[in-house]
Design goal:
single chain; 163 residues; alpha+beta; Alpha-Beta Plaits; 2 domains; six-stranded antiparallel β-sheet; elongated
Length: 163
């Protein structure tokens, strides 16, 4: 019996086949860039930067108020019932009550519900922070393995995928 050998499936449009190396993520683009430049120069390849935004915390604020005096009065009333806040001026000249930044989304939601329970508006906003990665590819197997060996030896975080 003969085994059937098929042709490889065509690559999806716009995605070249081969190995892709992803360096990072790292929070400091300049530091990552310098490190990557040294490694990639050695292997004669060029990568492209990807920026990813991750939620690092949650901030609770009120709707904007036009008068600072009104914002300060609300802040005093809410602080008296255990909901301390700061008054922050916005670029448009309005003011918001800032109830703080929370690492835990559930804690931020509880604070917002408590403020709303007192008859005032409160919104939970994600506080996003960028992280950066450099993607190199497609590479043939030999080049990908050489690059990943160098990355491993230099301590650069990376991942390797095949497409």
């Amino acid at each position: 019996m003969r085994s059937a050998v098929g042709h490889p499936a065509p690559a999806a449009p716009g995605v070249a086949r081969g190995y892709w190396v992803r360096l990072g993520p790292a929070p400091d683009l300049q530091h990552l860039g310098k490190l990557v430049d040294r490694v990639l120069e050695r292997h004669g390849v060029v990568g492209r930067v990807q920026t990813e935004w991750t939620v690092r915390a949650f901030r609770v604020t009120s709707a904007s108020l036009r008068a600072r005096k009104a914002a300060e009065e609300r802040c005093r009333m809410l602080a008296a019932v255990g909901l301390p806040c700061d008054v922050r001026e916005q670029p448009d000249g309005s003011y918001v009550l800032d109830f703080g930044e929370f690492r835990d989304g559930a804690a931020a939601q509880r604070t917002a519900r408590a403020v709303r329970g007192r008859g005032y508006s409160a919104v939970v906003h994600p506080v996003r922070t960028p992280s950066y990665a450099v993607v190199v590819g497609p590479l043939d197997e030999r080049a990908a393995l050489a690059l990943t060996r160098t990355l491993y030896e230099s301590g650069v975080p990376f991942s390797l995928t095949r497409r």
